[in-house]
């Protein structure tokens, strides 16, 4: 369709869902004849796939946009696109703020990039943020890795956590059919991929919106059923999934993860706060006691399982005592990894307008104290690997040391060891761990 070879560059902010969306949009652009440009200034089409989970994530895109908008005055045929959650949140307002923009498209429209871009190339300025049913995308995503791949299984979220902007910008839950997910995984297996991560904002909600699922709660489709259904996909050696929700996490799922050999013993289950009053104000739908029982149950079935989570400090009204309950939970559970953040009021979320906001000083003080404890506990947890033999799926060469390769254990621990990437890429290697750090390991192939 395009005569002159046009080059594109995508910058992705935020979560794995955004990374997976960017890979699909890149695939669509390459199908349209565009070619990737590593350097944004060498591209004729610039796409920012944005995140609005916290204010600093949102502000980042405006600084990038400002520069490209200036560039567009010298290069009028430059195409500027904003996709993702800021696009959905701001919509038309973004055009008023950056009139040089050609296309503003919400996450639900990622698979429609070809149609929307055609309207732009025909001379229109386009805003696509209306809620739609997400169509299955047949385009071959341009994936960052040739060894591991993201596979979306459910889009959107029906929860109403009072701090979270996701339901507003990603819409209501839309599960893909088990058949569509399996055929994507089969295609990945044929292409030589070894590991798949199944993705969903609230992955435990998978299937409850699919036909056949009954309001009585006797769901025909659940994440556990899906894991069982895709487990024997040829060539795929490892299956991971994220992000779990303690409210819907079941023992049936834990048992399936123990019984299904390809499912890795790594669970990402955000708890957000260790205090029940704060959890109530967040509308998370579980107590810290329930959360602890879930972790205990996982460790009952898989004593060595890796546990990671997310936590927010400085939620409106959080007292020092309530914050200490978060520290206590982190101390007691001992996470392999914990993503931490200070509460950031988001547009359109209930908690953003509450009058008991905490000061930035208090929030950053608590964040610092929590991060200190997290690093300490992660270093303690890492000790268990010393001297052990771990299976590492080799993904890349170590960018800092070309004589080494790097990959992950089944517990999702980044591991480095000496080896040749040409020979080892995509292979699972037994590695004896000789050195441990809080968040990564070093070893020798054995
Ligand atoms: S479960 Fe809560 S925190 Fe997670 S995406 Fe949904 S609304 Fe946001």
- How many helix segments? 14
pLDDT averaged over residues: 94
CATH level-two architecture of the largest domain = Alpha-Beta Horseshoe
* Highest CATH level, the class of the largest domain: Alpha Beta
Shape: globular
What is the end-to-end distance?
Answer: 52 Å
Got a strand count? 19
Indicate the CATH topology of the largest domain: pyruvate-formate lyase- activating enzyme
Order the strands across the largest sheet as they lie in space: 2-1-3-4-5-6
User: By CATH's scheme, which homologous superfamily of the largest domain applies?
Assistant: tm_1862 like domain
Portion of residues in helices?
25-40%
How many domains would you count in the coordinates? 3
Structural class estimated from helices and strands = alpha/beta
Largest sheet geometry: 6 strands, parallel
SSE topology sketch:
Blueprint: E1 7-12, H1 16-31, E2 35-36, E3 45-50, H2 55-74, E4 79-84, H3 85-90, H4 92-97, E5 103-105, H5 113-121, E6 126-128, E7 148-152, E8 154-155, H6 166-170, E9 174-175, H7 178-190, E10 195-199, H8 223-230, E11 238-242, H9 251-259, E12 266-268, H10 276-281, H11 288-301, E13 306-313, H12 320-333, E14 337-342, H13 360-382, E15 389-397, E16 404-408, E17 414-418, H14 421-424, E18 428-436, E19 440-445
Helix pairs in contact: 8-9, 9-11, 12-13
Bound molecules: iron/sulfur cluster (SF4).
